[in-house]
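Work Package 4 report. The design task specified in the project plan requires that, given a folded chain encoded as structure tokens, an amino acid be chosen for each position. We show below one input record used in the internal validation round.
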């Protein structure tokens, strides 16, 4: 019979664990916040463009978004 790994029940949710990992990755709360703000500003800048950077870099795969039903109806 194999032993199951013990599960930690300490009341922390998934978001709190993400925060803990983020701080561990960047070394301090300040550096983690800097990284998050940098990514947030990059996303905001990309949202203001007519064509997202991810699309130009071919990151969006075919079928990633549901087809629009109203395409070509007004023409």
């Amino acid at each position: 019979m194999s032993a199951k790994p013990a599960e930690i029940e300490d009341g922390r949710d998934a978001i709190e664990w993400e925060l803990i990992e983020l701080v561990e990755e960047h070394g301090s709360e300040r550096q983690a916040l800097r990284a998050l703000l940098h990514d947030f500003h990059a996303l905001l800048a990309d949202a203001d463009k007519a064509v997202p950077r991810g699309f130009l870099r071919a990151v969006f795969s075919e079928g990633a978004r549901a087809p629009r039903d109203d395409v070509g109806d007004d023409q």
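The CA atoms of residues 8 and 17 lie 12 Å apart. Validation will be extended to a larger panel in the next phase.
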